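Good morning C.,

I know you're traveling, so I'll keep this short. The sequence:
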Amino acid sequence: MSDGDGGRPPADGAFLCGPSRIAVLTRTACRRGIGALRDAAASAGLRLGAAGRFVHRFKRWIGVLILVTAAVVLFTWSYPTTVVVVWTVALAPVALAIREFPDDGPAPPPTPGRTPLAH
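The tokens, ready to paste straight into the viewer:
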């Protein structure tokens, strides 16, 4: 099951989850890049609406679901080959990045003196 790199992908992932300065900078850069892409899509007319609010509200649980799914794939696969491990380790961060895209943040506060419209 070794691909010759000494288990680097999981170690790199664990490092990037930590509190080190490089890990925080990397996560911040990725978050800002995805945010810029989301803002560009919004300025081009993309409206996320309820989906964006849903992802923002349940973002942590969606991330947990992605990681649990990756772990279940790795631990329940009868004979995980290097390809299975590499694809699982590669697709988990991609899924987390996709989860980041529709997160439009908290709803803006209502403007003073105006009441929100009821639907």
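Safe travels,
E.
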